[in-house]
Design goal:
It is built from 13 helices and 11 strands. It is of the alpha/beta class. The strands form 4 sheets. The chain has a 5-stranded parallel β-sheet with strand order 4-5-8-3-9. It has a two-stranded antiparallel sheet with strand order 1-2. The protein is globular.
């Protein structure tokens, strides 16, 4: 094994494939390569606190990062819990991007956005003629994610009948396209997310208990933004820069306006903060977001 590597993840992936007797020497190569990378990397003043593509300096986010680091290189299913807008999709992206499956696809399925009568076909595919409108065979999201990661967002919205088929898929890795007689194997890592209390839904007979425990091998709860208000200033800085990079309205922000953003409770979490920054930057005539540019709810915290 010899350097250079694309990055640390490339080095670790290659290390995993080596015979055990060759790993000690390879670790020395990686250690030397890491030293050169650290020495060569410039450290930006005021760099944002982030890990795995997620921003956060607060203790609750440090716990999230610590757990991510422990499970990153495993294939165990992960259930991500948290209010809407807390960034659950970022966890799925991190688990894929920094894990051993990163060279394959990450396929995200919003289970709440697809009509219940179509969701089975979208996940598992279908064969021609299996239902009205099925004019040809079509592979589903599970096939598209083969070798990679399947992210099932809003898993709590799946209808009870489909839950049994999803459970069989998680247990055996087998899928049967709608209308097909045969099954076939796929190899995916499952990451699921919900803002629902799944155990409460289990107690009400709305979610299968066996499916819950199959998904919740490892659970990760993302904190609401109001529980990590110290991170708001870092998120504001990041989001304003990203808006400019994406061709959206952007601006700097006054100290007073930033104080109000940090003091607000953010019921819609990071998604609401992002929307507020786009809106207020649009009204920032001098290129600076002032208190007057903020929405009424936020100005009401004065």
């Amino acid at each position: 094994m010899s350097a250079p590597f694309d990055d640390l993840q490339d080095a670790l992936d290659r290390l995993d494939r080596l015979p055990k007797e060759e790993r000690a020497a390879a670790v020395q190569v990686i250690r030397g390569w890491l030293v050169t990378q650290v020495e060569a990397a410039p450290v930006a003043e005021g760099e944002l606190p982030s890990e795995f593509g997620m921003i956060g300096a607060t203790p609750v986010m440090q716990q999230v990062f610590k757990l991510l680091g422990r499970i990153m290189r495993t294939d165990i299913p992960v259930l991500v819990l948290g209010e809407s807008g807390t960034g659950k999709e970022l966890v799925a992206s991190a688990l894929h991007k920094y894990g051993p499956r990163r060279r394959k696809a990450l396929v995200a399925v919003n289970c709440a956005a697809i009509p219940a009568n179509l969701l089975e076909s979208e996940i598992f595919g279908h064969v021609k003629g299996s239902f009205t409108g099925a004019h040809k065979d079509r592979k589903g999201f599970a096939d598209a994610a083969n070798g990679g990661t399947l992210f099932l967002d809003e898993i709590g919205e799946i209808e009870f009948d489909l839950q049994a088929k999803l459970l069989r898929f998680l247990q055996d890795g087998e899928i049967r396209p709608v209308g097909a007689n045969a099954t076939h194997q796929v190899d995916v890592r499952i990451v699921a997310a919900t803002n629902r209390n799944l155990l409460d839904r289990v107690s009400k007979g709305l979610f299968r208990e066996d499916l819950y425990y199959r998904l919740a091998v490892m659970t990760m709860e993302l904190p609401a933004l109001r529980e990590r208000s110290e991170d708001v200033r870092h998120l504001v800085k990041y989001l304003l820069v990203k808006q400019g990079e994406d061709g959206m309205p952007t601006a700097t922000i006054s100290d007073k306006a930033l104080e109000l953003l940090c003091a607000y409770s953010w019921p819609g979490n990071i998604r609401q903060l992002q929307n507020e920054l786009v809106r207020s930057a649009t009204f920032a005539n001098d290129g600076v977001i002032h208190v007057a540019d903020l929405s009424d709810d936020i100005r009401g915290t004065v």
